[in-house]
Specification:
Number of domains: 1
Strand content: 15-25%
Order of helices and strands: EHEHEHHHHEEHEEEEEHH
Radius of gyration: 17 Å
Largest sheet: 5 strands, mixed
CATH architecture: 4-Layer Sandwich
Number of helices: 9
Shape: globular
Structural class: alpha/beta
């Protein structure tokens, strides 16, 4: 008997995309839904996004915390962006503070108590959902990562399937003994396709297959709502949502 698992990540407060993805996921009627963090920063409606995500959680979705969720909840920028040795930009700070203020105390408490990773057993197959890679919310599976580093990060877990995001570039990599299922972004992808990305995994006894799904949403409405805030960097955030390419 086969089972199906939906994976999404990196909503980034884009409620317009999230609503579209939730409808697409519901149409597939998966046996489980995994959500891999980075839930509120940069988008036009962090509070509305949290409300939807909590509804999904109550319906059984498993949700973990991403690095930018740390920035929004507690302003711990060093933990959230350790690669920025000279400190984060004013644009990142402004966006984090805006999202923080948009959330109520209950929403912030929910962000804080999300786990860094969770595991799901489907039959004899273990799936790990984490934001970036096993044991890390910030060290992801970038495409240009050295092969030895990739294998080292893969070996940090016994899970056969690692479900993640962080890079905003959706892809499935099958190493035989393990698979990386990077759902990309359900808020703003960086691969040049301005649609929301997510993944659908099918498990059939010992066979595991995964496919990237693309869902259209009103990119112009989302981009316009972001631009209307007038925060530093919003023109670039809006362009990224509109084009599906990282603009900065």
């Amino acid at each position: 008997m086969s089972s199906r698992v939906a994976v999404l990540s990196d909503v980034h407060g884009n409620i317009t995309a999230l609503e579209a993805v939730r409808k697409a996921v519901n149409r597939e009627k998966p046996d489980a839904v995994l959500i891999a963090g980075d839930l509120v920063l940069n988008g036009h409606d962090p509070a509305g996004s949290v409300a939807i995500l909590r509804e999904m959680e109550r319906a059984g979705a498993i949700i973990v915390q991403g690095n930018t969720d740390i920035a929004v909840a507690d302003f711990d920028y060093t933990a959230a962006f350790p690669w920025m040795a000279d400190g984060v930009s004013d644009a990142i700070r402004a966006a984090a503070e805006w999202a923080h203020d948009a959330l109520d105390d209950e929403g912030l408490a929910w962000l804080r108590r999300l786990p860094a990773e969770r595991r799901l057993m489907v039959g004899d197959t273990m799936l790990l959902v984490t934001h970036a890679s096993p044991g890390s919310q910030t060290a992801g599976f970038d495409r240009d990562l050295d092969a030895g580093v990739t294998l080292e990060r893969l070996s940090r877990t016994d899970a056969r399937v690692i479900c993640c995001g962080h890079t905003h570039i959706p892809e499935v990599r099958d190493f035989g003994w393990k698979q990386i299922v990077n759902a990309g972004s359900a808020g703003n992808t960086f691969d040049g396709d301005p649609t929301a990305s997510w993944a659908l995994i099918t498990l059939d006894e010992e066979t595991v297959t995964a496919e990237i799904q693309r869902t259209e949403f009103d990119t112009m409405a989302a981009a316009t709502a972001i631009s209307a805030r007038g925060l530093p960097g919003d023109v670039y955030r809006a362009a990224t949502v509109r084009t599906g390419k990282l603009v900065r």
